[in-house]
## 1
Amino acid sequence: MFIYEKVVPFYDVDSMRVVYHGNYIKYLEEARCAFLEKKNLTYTQMEELGFAFPIVELKVKYIKPSKFNDILEVLVSLDSFDNFLTFKYEIRNKETKEKICKAETKQMCVDVTKKESLFEIPQEIVSRLK
């Protein structure tokens, strides 16, 4: 389990200082990128290996709102990496530990040279994720 911290910035909230729901997706992306960087596998490195990983599925369940200046913890885990990279997330308030939302993303591997979807994650990627 990887934990990414995010302080809710003012530009992510509405006039009631509540985070706009679409911004949570951005927080998931930031956390996933930090998780992959920790595994020494950035999206740039994946591209240099000849692969892209577009999101093909996103599920989000909103539970409670968060507000301006809240410190959020985004918990990230790589659930599987066989046919897709499947990540699971939980966003919670760092101070209260209240769950804000749960999410899951699936990313398909694409060979950037051939512009073809691959239905198995290449071994170069798998070895770095283990």
## 2
Amino acid sequence: MPDLEDLHARVASCTDCALYKSAINAVPGEGSPNAELMFIGEGPGAQEDAQGRPFVGPAGQVLNQLLASIGLKREDVYIANMVKHRPPDNRDPFPGEIQACAKYLEEQIKLINPKVVIPLGRHALAKWFPKDTISKVHGRPRRVGELTLFPQYHPAAALHNPAIRPALEHDFQEMGKLLRQEDIPAEPETPEESGGQQLSMF
């Protein structure tokens, strides 16, 4: 898709925040431009920074296993992050860095137009539901405007806390069932949930 390739090129040359100064490579995102599922993580780690590809480290291996459990491969989905350059020492991205990258993420969502967007972990969740916690809302489809979101634990969480793995596996199975439905039942967003801080969708 030329528009997606153009976006990736713009990300690769972006200097809108300071993260590019310490990064080896930009990590725009990758996958099918016609994906029904779009996964959104927090930010690139060391291996992602080295390769310029998202989710290629240990968390990516967990994600690949979870996708295989519902009959999918990486090539079938689209994978992106909230920020497109690695934060130094894998620290959390700062709000200004997330805001600087927001335009790229929103454009990716618009271009791909997935059936379901999966925020992975609290930083991605906070884009739409800043007052919620991932432990409270994971595995529950929710609708914001025309977009259906299905928040899940970040795969890295299962590496740090193996007790989370069964919840992740269960949520993936539920997500697989959702994909087979023409109309996805989802809880509507309320102003109280968003806290009035929701960023524009596109």
## 3
Amino acid sequence: MTGKNSEFSLYFHLPFCKKKCDYCHFFVLPERELHKDQLLHGLRKEWQLIKAMCEDKRLVSVYFGGGTPSLFGSDRVAEILSWINPGPIEITLEINPDGVAEELMNAYAKAGINRASLGVQSFDDNLLQTLSRTHSSALARRAVDGIYNAGISNISIDLMFDIPGQTLKQWETSLITACSLPITHISLYNLTFEPRTVFFKKRKDLQPQTPDEATSQAMYKSAQAILPAHGLSQYEISAFSKPGCQSLHNSGYWKARPFLGLGPSAFSYWRGSRFRNIASLNKYCRMLEEGKRPIDFEETLEPAPSLRERFVINLRLLEGVDLNCYPGIDSISLRELESNGLITLQSGKAKLTDLGILHYDTIAAELI
């Protein structure tokens, strides 16, 4: 089969962490070799159950997320890749700066990893302490160089704004520092206080320290100015890249490319339905031993809501959305958004304006 409908991606959730950050709401486990072997066995079982679903489809990307997937071990990652035999495609591994060692990075490159996503968050040591990160700014810079020297030249880093106590100057310094490194991609995140996190429990003390709305917008606009000036062009609301280095995997999320998530708590999107694996390693493995898919949540949206949702997510890409692919979208709402300066409607495409990028959540609420 050929064409976009035959394309798909794979995501592997490797949830091990040395320490869970105070703002993190993802399912993670302490780093133990026994649990890693248990998960590898479970992933093999899950792949055996679902691999028939992938027949006659073209694999576009593989992503190892977490947690801190680099703690899983290069031998285990190499074994997973041997099952799926992905070929020369984008294969990403998330890494923490304190986990970068030359020998380990060389091993991951040999295993087949050709793209790294490094969780830097900030190049300011005080802010890293606020975030309970276990690395320093200097270590983050050395980590980028270490990954690059191992032959993994496609390197993305995460940077976070709206951190308690963060100033515009600190943010701009982090952006400029990032641009001085051999990276190809930057993903921006604004800090949110998610339930079941330490930050959420301390929100009454922390939220008053976060930048106000005007400063937050100034931070975002400064990124839009600084990063393109250093060769990193914006292609999505939160993503900037060097030419030819856009994230194929993440672009699939925004374009509704089907993907299968393996591992406890992993999400999937397949044939118009989305589902999630159970967030427990023991239950996940037990269900697989019983020959069952380890799913604890599934939903299929009705066609109209599904179309609107896919349109709104696709609109995050600055290239715009082909309106011919979304014939059910309310044209009256689109014209109202255009009259308010939030989108443009030209040549059969809807695109966010600079103002629309800043008010994307308002647009999403209007259309969904």
## 4
Amino acid sequence: MPPKIKPAHKPSPGSIKHKPQTRKVSPKVLRPAREEKKISRSGVKRAPTQPTAEHEIHKVKLEAEVSPARADKILSGLLSGISRSRVQKALDLGLITRDGVAIDRRTVLNPLDSLTVALPAPEEPTAIAVKMSLEVIYEDAHIIAINKPSGLLTHPVQGSDELSVVHGLLHHTKGKLAPAGGAPRPGVVHRLDRETSGVIVLAKTDKAYHNLVEQFGDRTAKKEYLALVDKSPRLLGGQVNANIDRHRTVRVRMAVREDGRHEAITDWRVEEKYGPHAALIRAYPQTGRTHQIRVHLGHIGHSILGDRTYGKFDVPTYDNWPMPRVMLHAHKLTLKHPQTGKPMTFSVEPPKDFKTLQTWLTNKFGVRAFSTV
């Protein structure tokens, strides 16, 4: 027989009494809290903190017929409807106890053991509206396009309270972003890396969401990026057709791999050369893999300036180069309006930091421009 699982009774929290304050406080000190945003010591803007969800508590008693086995194997099969990862995390955090003593994955459980299982709440972040300044370049009842600044996430990510495009657009649209994207990513049909600036489009209705997702999936939506790269390519253009997957040892990075599961194709063309030292490249990704342009340009020996993940710029040669971030800009996006089918092109010029580096490279090394026809 399967074990009976009963939610544990949670006693109501007792009230806490505070000693009244008798010292007078100057009115200037009593400033109202600002809920829109918080700024960390590092200067990164934070979203308002939400109350942490309580653990989901269960009481479990193993049946007499259960064979002794490791806790991770028994519990993963007993808690129906509960993901294995939540059970594993609860074990790792010491949230599962036997007779009041925490157990771990390797603990051997025996017949008739009684357990208290506290399951962590799912960690999928929920985006909330936050007032912030965003440059809207187009908006109607179906879609909204903005010029995303560098340093801003596209959507909330697990384990972080950093602000994102979604936070700001939920406020701007009064919550009218397509729910089909899910709680942390309403309206998000494509994304830009945190340090990448430029055009990004979000859907305001589910119909628009599914249409745009299909356009990006079918590769009918066309994207153009500008990148300032290390060293001038010998050729004036080409194509990188190389599969991408997780790096074999550094799992937070992507890499070109012969056994990579994800097809990735990037066309590129040189627009300016700054002597042999750097170049301005226009990239046309046909696919949309994570970090694709950064990985592909690094793979052919022309890492994007400022990209310290896929390039080597923390050396004396680059000490005075004004490249405060990955110098990649989403310059242009062409797609069909999800409601009317009308072709639309959104384009924004690179921001000040990008142009500053262009000017610096020109002054230091000279510039040679190539026809874009």
